Amino acid sequence: MLWRRILLGAVIAVFILSGFFEAEPEIQQTRAPYEADPLYVNAAGIPETSAAAADVEIIARRGANNIFNEHTLTAYEIAADAEVDSLEIDLRMTKDHELIALHDAALDRTTTGTGPPESRTLEEIKQLNTVAVFGEETYTEPVPALEEIFAKFEQKEHYYIETRLVDGDTKMEEPFIDLLQEHDLLNPEYVSFQSFSKRSLQKMQELAPEIRTTLLYNANKFNLKDALAADADVIGLESRNVTRDNVDALHQQGKEVHVFFTDEKTQLAEQQRVIAYGVDGVFTDDIDFTKQVVNNAAQVLLHSR
Question: What residue stretches are annotated with the GP-PDE domain (predicted)?
Answer without folding.
Answer: 56-294
